């Protein structure tokens, strides 16, 4: 924090400068390492929260991917983000959280009204995405909401159970079958 304040006080650096490899801004980097106070300071000093990296991911998507709940709360409090915004693979923040085993983030986003019915560019819903990562607790939670079709198929014709089987997650396959999956 001390170093960030010093660099900002010198006024020589562009607060929205980009790293070459992924086109990340300092705000995106602070988000990815879950540094809430640096995130707040950068935003206070004019960092643009809506910029996207090389993959089309904004800071909200990144905070959900890494499970930074407090940073996500802060971003949503700015009232500039659509909670169902899209990024890489046309995925939503909810899908990113499910894909990267961020169960608490999944619950938080659902509590804030994230749309469970959306699908990504491959036709995967949040259940398909959760089955890729294999987080049984998140899958149980999603199914407990009674809004997802357990046998929904993506554009390749795969169900969540088929994705779990392909990923060699037998515990998920067994659970989904117990829940009525075909």
Low-confidence stretches: none
Main sheet characteristics: none
Number of strands: 0
Individual helix count: 11
Oligomer: single chain
H/E element order: HHHHHHHHHHH
Strand content: under 5%
The N- to C-terminal Cα distance equals 52 Å
- State the shape: elongated
* Alpha carbon gyration radius: 18 Å
Helix content: 40-55%
Mean pLDDT across the residues is 94
Structural class of the helices, strands and pairings? mainly alpha
Give your account of this protein's structure.
Helices cover 50% and strands 0% of the residues. The chain has 182 residues and is mostly helical. Helix 2 (26-32) packs antiparallel against helix 3, helix 4 (59-66) packs antiparallel against helix 5 and helix 6 runs parallel beside helix 8 (126-133). The longest helix has 9 residues, at 2-10. The radius of gyration is 18 Å and the shape is elongated. The model has no long low-confidence stretch (mean pLDDT 94).
Short structural description:
The chain has eleven helices and no strands.
Protein topology:
Elements: H1 2-10, H2 26-32, H3 36-44, H4 59-66, H5 69-77, H6 93-99, H7 103-111, H8 126-133, H9 136-144, H10 160-166, H11 170-178
Helix pairs in contact: 2-3, 2-4, 4-5, 4-6, 6-7, 6-8, 8-9, 8-10, 10-11
List the keywords.
single chain, mainly alpha
């Amino acid at each position: 924090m001390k170093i960030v304040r010093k660099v900002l006080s010198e006024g020589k650096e562009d607060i929205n400068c980009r790293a070459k490899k992924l086109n990340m801004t300092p705000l995106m980097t602070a988000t990815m390492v879950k540094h809430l106070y640096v995130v707040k300071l950068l935003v206070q000093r004019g960092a643009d929260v809506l910029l996207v990296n090389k993959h089309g991911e904004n800071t909200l998507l990144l905070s959900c991917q890494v499970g930074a709940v407090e940073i996500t709360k802060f971003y949503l409090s700015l009232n500039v983000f659509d909670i169902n915004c899209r990024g890489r693979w046309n995925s939503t923040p909810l899908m990113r959280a499910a894909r990267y085993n961020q169960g608490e983030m999944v619950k938080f986003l659902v509590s804030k009204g994230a749309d469970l019915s959306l699908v990504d560019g491959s036709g995967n819903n949040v259940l398909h995405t959760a089955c890729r990562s294999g987080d049984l607790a998140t899958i149980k939670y999603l199914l407990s909401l009674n809004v997802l079709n357990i046998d929904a198929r993506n554009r390749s014709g795969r169900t969540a159970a088929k994705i779990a089987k392909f990923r060699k997650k037998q515990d998920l396959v067994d659970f989904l079958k117990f829940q009525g999956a075909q």
